[in-house]
Write a structure and sequence with these properties.
With 467 residues, the chain is an alpha/beta fold. The chain folds into three domains: 280 residues, 3-Layer(aba) Sandwich (Rossmann fold), CATH 3.40.50.620; 103 residues, Four Helix Bundle (Hemerythrin (Met), subunit A) (Up-down Bundle); 50 residues, no CATH class. The chain has 15 helices and 15 strands. It has a four-stranded parallel beta sheet with strand order 4-3-9-10, with helices on both faces. Strand 3, helix 1 and strand 4 form a beta-alpha-beta unit. It is elongated and about 95 Å long. The two termini are 40 Å apart.
């Protein structure tokens, strides 16, 4: 298995620190609002990476933090006239609701910054004691020039960097690039006691402390959006490795931006949709399929048309599943079989190459096309072939990509399914009575509401159209 490591700028063979255990840390949301669909891409991509490692029989410890103390939370608290902790609780609950709808597996731990103040303060203390940090009137800063490896993740040179939009400006700093580890309390803001006075932690130190607490000083994989490479992840490396004198992360994985009109989707630009909004209009499985159609590390353009295209692709898979479920398997000897090994090999080869979901989906689409052809040519199908097809779709689409391919088939065993079958029976009866006008009206009216009837020698089946 190969992983592109942002740190080394190349693909590397994946060799866990302590196999079969694999430790993963993912930068989660700042819980001051609903997360946008661009964040959802990172969360879904991280979920797929985790699922594939579990598919490969690794024992994954998966941690995703929740930032629940931050300038954005304080601002939202003032806007909504609610305590910061109430804002955090409100949007944490919304976060869990939305990731559940997206089919994202629960993390082993969701650490919150406010629950790790002891670990955060201890880590800052270590950095101060080692001379990597300094205190200015209750504000503690990290001295980037003291860490020789600063810039190794982002490829930036300390001498070439200047204070800019993404670097916090503060006159107390010895260097504009130095970043906050501890912020002195301001009037009306939440605070905690510390050796430097009342205050709260900086954003970067929170992740280092929580990662070390739950996963140890060195972890296998750290995942986040590309926008976090600098300064957030660069700063995580600097403070973690300075404190522990050991490698912080073995493999850094970064997910590409979701773009609208060639611009990165972000709240700061105001060109975003929340995941909650999109989930009201599109099938969660289609959203996951949409994300999987492009490699997670590259940019991805977002539009309703592209999501509608993903829904059509999903419909083809659902229709195959329904077709498989409707066939009575045969135990007759001498029947023509269907070899599926090459599709699974193609799927795994793609995923082994830096989790290439785009190529993995191509293998699934090839299987869908070829298995449909096989079913059309063979009236009787061996039970083992049908079982093998179900297993292939479940293990690839559901277990790895997180797309619930059998859910639609299950839903069709509902009252709606019974009603549609009742109309099919009435149409069949009308045809037997040579009342073709009524039979055609039933077919056309069902088509108008998105139910497509398909006649064959075995009888009439149906599929649901996305339009």
């Amino acid at each position: 298995m190969l992983i592109f490591n942002t740190l080394t700028k190349k693909k590397e063979e994946f060799i866990p620190l302590n196999p079969p255990k694999v430790t993963i840390y993912v930068c989660g949301p700042t819980i001051y609002d609903f997360f946008h669909i661009g964040n959802a891409r990172t969360f879904v991509s991280a979920d797929i990476i985790r699922r594939y490692l579990e598919y490969k029989n690794y024992d994954v410890m998966f941690v995703m933090n929740l930032t629940d103390v931050d300038d954005k939370l304080i601002k939202k608290s003032n806007e909504e006239n609610l305590p910061v902790e109430k804002i955090a609780q409100k949007y944490a609950e919304a976060f869990f609701e939305d990731i559940a709808k997206l089919g994202i597996k629960k993390a082993n731990v969701y650490p919150k910054a406010t629950e790790h103040m002891t670990e955060i303060i201890d880590l800052i203390n270590t950095l101060v004691d080692k001379g990597f940090a300094y205190n200015v009137d209750g504000n503690v800063f990290y001295d980037v020039k003291k860490f020789k490896g600063y810039g190794k993740l982002s490829g930036k040179n300390v001498e070439d960097l200047e204070s800019g939009a993404r670097v916090e400006i503060n006159e107390d700093k010895q260097n504009p690039l130095d970043f906050s580890l501890w912020k002195k309390a301001k009037l009306g803001e939440p605070f905690w006691e510390s050796p430097w006075g009342n205050g709260r932690p900086g954003w970067h130190i929170e992740c280092s402390a929580m990662s070390m607490k739950h996963l140890g000083q060195t972890i296998d994989i750290h995942i986040g959006g590309s926008d976090l490479v600098f300064p957030h992840h660069e700063n995580e490396i600097a403070q973690s490795e300075a404190a522990c004198n050991t490698e912080f992360v073995k493999y850094w994985i970064h997910c590409g931006f979701l773009n609208i009109n060639q611009e990165k989707m972000s709240k700061s630009l105001g060109n975003f949709f929340t995941a909650r909004e999109i989930l009201k209009r599109f099938n969660p499985n289609a959203i996951r399929l949409f994300f999987s159609q492009t490699h997670f590390s590259g940019p991805l353009s977002f539009s309703d048309e592209l999501l509608e295209g993903a829904e059509k692709g999903l419909e083809k898979i659902y229709n195959l599943v329904q077709r498989i479920e409707s066939i009575a398997p045969s135990n007759d000897s001498g029947l023509i079989t269907f070899e599926q090994e090459r599709y699974l090999f193609a799927f795994e080869s793609a995923m082994d190459d830096n989790f290439n979901t785009s190529q993995a989906l191509a293998a699934i689409y090839d299987f869908t096309r070829d298995f449909n052809k096989y079913l059309s040519k063979n009236e009787k199908v061996p039970v083992e072939v049908l079982d093998s097809a179900k297993k292939f779709l479940k293990s690839t689409l559901t277990d790895v990509l997180g797309i619930q391919v059998f859910k639609e088939a299950e839903n069709r065993n509902s009252k709606e399914d019974e009603l549609i079958k009742l109309f099919i029976d009435l149409r069949t009866k009308a045809k037997l009575e040579k009342n073709y006008k009524l039979a055609d009206e039933i077919r056309d009216n069902l088509k108008n509401i998105g139910v497509i009837l398909e006649d064959s020698k075995e009888g009439t089946t149906y599929k649901i159209s996305s339009k």
